[in-house]
Amino acid sequence: MRLVTLDHAPTNTGLADGPMMSPADLATTAAPQPAGGAAPVEGESRPEHLLRWAFERFQGWRLGLTTGFGMEGCVLIDMVAKLGVPTRVLYLDTHFLFEETYQLRDRLLRRYPHLTFINVGTDLTPEQQAEEHGERLWERDPAACCRIRKVEPLITALRDLDVWVTAIRRGQSKARAETRFVEWEWKYELIKLNPLAYWSREQIWEYVQRHDVPYNTLHEQGYPSIGCTHCTKAVPGSTPWSYSRDGRWAGSEKTECGLHVPTPGTTTAAAPQRVEPLTIERNTPANTDEQPRS
Questions:
Q1: In 44, 186, 218, 289, which residue has its Cα 20 to 30 A from 280's Cα atom?
Q2: What φ, ψ does residue 16 adopt, rounded to 5°?
Q3: DSSP H or E segment with residue 67
């Protein structure tokens, strides 16, 4: 894939003849049907359809996907790999990941050699964090720990992308319940694609089994969702095909690290039943005195 900067964005956007458009402009424009087939239908099309459409629709744009090496992320990686297009896979090494997560990363590297896995995590060592912020910050202020080790590094990494592909699903949490296939992400100022938005964990598990996709062995040990070692616990009775965030930040009200939390005040229009051709939605923040959440 040819990578370009916004200052030299391709004019081949698939739009009608006219001036070159930025991603922000593109996000408010109805997307035409690529030559490869009809545009996806919101909530109905398969994730693979959305990905094929997106890789053609945004050819020449700076596109990359992120993963925390959860089961959904592994499925997304496999789907993207099947397109045969060299693509960047960004991940955040927080320095607190499970050994099983590093083992999974290495398995994925061997399985998908045409994908480029890039660690965009912080350079701040655990020792340096303890010196600057005190010991065991994850216990005293988990939001600050996530901001330092996840949110801030991702903000920096996403500055190099125009199109961000994620593996989040509506069923994962309340904060993700209104996720759409294609969104304008105000927090990071780019187009956000969520191909798995409407899938269930059972569908994810079925795909893993059918395509022999590598996944974290901790899912077989009662971990439905896997993050850092200090803030992730096993959930009794959990199976690989069940999902919850009960084991994340146990004992606190925190359920999200902050990567996919919308900026307070951002309004989201109700998703239509069908979007044909797919409309790339731009959400406009309402006037608010609240500060953006870290």
A1: 289
A2: -60, 160
A3: strand 63-67
Amino acid at 244: S
- C-alpha dist (Å) from residue 27 to 10, 61, 205, 242: 15, 13, 32, 34
C-alpha span between 62 and 7 (Å, rounded): 12
In this structure, the number of other CB atoms found within 10 A of the CB of residue 35 comes to: 7
Residues 6+ apart with CB under 8 A from 203: none
Amino acid, res. 170: R
Closest-CA residue to 165 (of 193, 142, 191, 146): 193
Mean pLDDT of the 278-290 span: 36
pLDDT digits (tens, 9 = 90+) for 242-272: 666 565 655 666 555 545 555 543 333 333 3
pLDDT tens string 27-66 = 444 344 444 456 788 888 899 999 999 999 999 999 999 9
Token pair recorded at residue 106 = 């290495």
**N-to-C CA span, the chain:** 32
